[in-house]
C-alpha cells in the first residue's frame, strides 16, 4: 500500500503539471494568433497602408487610412457617449443608491452587457439610421457607445467600492458633504482603476464589426464630417476577407494585425495604470 505522504506528493506533482500545461496552452493560443497574423499580414504593412485609400479592384497597393481614421472617429464618439453615462451611473450605484436600486441597476447593466453586438447594431439602426434616413459615423458611435455603458458602469462601481471606507469617513468627519467627499476624495483615489476599466471598454468595442454593418456601413473613400457613412477597421476586414481577390485577403490580414496591436496596446496601457495604482496604494 502506498503511504499517504507519497500519494499526496504524487497528486501534487500531477496537478502542478496539469495546471502548468494548461497555462502554456492558454498563452500559446495568443502567441499563435499573433504569429499567424504577423506571417500572413506582416508583409502587406507599409507606409502606404497607413496613409493611402484602398486601391480599386485589380490594382495593387493602396491602404487602410480611411478605415484607421474612421475607427478613431467611432471610438471618440463612443467614448463621448458611453464614458459619462457609465461613469456617473457607476458612481451612483456605488455611493448613493440603496441596495434595491443598486441591485436593479447592476442586474440591468449585466443583462445589457450580454446583449449580442449584432442586436445592438439593429437597435442603433432602428433609433438612429432609420430616422436620419442614411448610415453615418454618428450612428456607429451611438451603437459602440451603448455597448461601452455596462462595462464602464461595472468597472467604475468595483473600483469605487475598493476605496477604503476610512477615506470617506475622514472626509465626512472634516465637514464635507457626501457628494463633496465622493468628488474630492473617493473618485480621485479610484481614478486610475476607473481609467483602466474605461480603456478596457474601448478595447472591447474597437474590434466590433457587426454593429457597424448596420450603422456606419463602410466607405471606400474619406468620410467628411460625422453625418456620412465611414470605413472602420473591423468592417473593412470583414469585407476584404470575404472578397474573391487575393490582394484584398493580404490587406485584411494586415488590418487584423493592426487592430490586434491596437487592442493589445490599450490593454497594456490599462494594466500599467492599474499596476501603478496598486503600487501607490501599497506605498
Low-confidence stretches: none
- Give the biggest sheet: none
Name the structural class: mainly alpha
- Please tell me the overall pLDDT: 88
* Percent helix range: over 70%
What's the helix count? 11
* Elements, N to C (H/E): HHHHHHHHHHH
Outline the structure in words.
It is a single chain. This protein has 283 residues and is mainly α. It is built from eleven helices and no strands. The chain has helices at 4-41, 47-51, 65-95, 99-113, 117-132, 137-161, 165-173, 178-206, 210-214, 233-241, 246-282. Helix 3 (65-95) packs antiparallel against helix 4 and helix 7 runs antiparallel to helix 8. The chain is globular and about 70 Å long. It starts with a helix and ends with a helix.
Compact description:
This protein has 283 residues and is mainly alpha-helical.
Based on the model shown, name its key terms.
single chain; 283 residues; mainly alpha; globular
Structural topology:
Elements: H1 4-41, H2 47-51, H3 65-95, H4 99-113, H5 117-132, H6 137-161, H7 165-173, H8 178-206, H9 210-214, H10 233-241, H11 246-282
Helix pairs in contact: 1-11, 3-4, 3-6, 3-8, 4-6, 5-6, 6-8, 7-8, 8-11, 10-11
Amino acid at each position: 500500500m502506498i503511504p499517504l505522504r507519497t500519494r499526496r506528493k504524487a497528486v501534487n506533482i500531477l496537478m502542478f503539471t496539469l495546471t502548468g500545461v494548461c497555462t502554456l496552452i492558454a498563452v500559446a493560443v495568443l502567441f499563435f494568433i499573433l504569429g499567424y497574423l504577423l506571417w500572413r499580414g506582416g508583409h502587406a504593412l507599409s507606409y502606404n497602408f497607413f496613409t493611402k485609400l484602398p486601391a480599386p479592384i485589380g490594382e495593387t497597393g493602396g491602404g487602410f487610412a480611411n478605415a484607421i481614421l474612421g475607427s478613431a472617429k467611432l471610438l471618440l464618439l463612443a467614448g463621448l457617449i458611453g464614458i459619462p453615462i457609465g461613469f456617473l451611473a457607476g458612481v451612483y450605484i456605488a455611493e448613493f443608491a440603496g441596495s434595491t436600486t443598486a441591485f436593479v441597476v447592476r442586474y440591468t447593466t449585466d443583462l445589457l452587457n450580454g446583449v449580442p453586438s449584432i442586436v445592438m447594431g439593429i437597435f442603433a439602426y432602428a433609433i438612429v439610421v432609420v430616422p436620419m434616413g442614411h448610415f453615418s459615423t454618428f450612428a456607429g458611435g451611438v451603437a459602440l457607445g451603448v455597448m461601452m455603458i455596462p462595462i464602464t458602469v461595472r468597472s467604475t462601481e468595483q473600483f469605487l467600492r475598493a476605496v477604503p471606507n476610512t477615506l470617506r469617513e475622514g472626509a465626512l468627519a472634516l465637514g464635507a458633504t457626501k457628494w463633496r467627499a465622493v468628488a474630492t476624495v473617493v473618485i480621485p483615489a479610484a481614478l486610475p482603476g476607473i481609467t483602466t476599466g474605461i480603456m478596457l471598454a474601448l478595447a472591447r468595442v474597437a474590434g466590433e464589426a457587426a454593429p457597424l454593418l448596420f450603422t456606419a456601413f463602410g466607405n471606400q473613400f474619406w468620410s467628411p464630417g460625422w453625418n456620412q457613412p465611414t470605413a472602420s477597421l473591423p468592417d473593412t476586414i470583414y469585407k476584404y476577407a470575404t472578397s474573391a481577390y487575393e490582394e484584398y485577403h493580404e490587406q485584411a490580414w494586415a488590418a487584423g494585425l493592426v487592430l490586434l496591436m491596437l487592442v493589445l496596446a490599450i490593454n497594456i496601457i490599462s494594466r500599467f495604470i492599474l499596476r501603478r495604482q496598486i503600487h501607490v496604494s501599497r506605498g
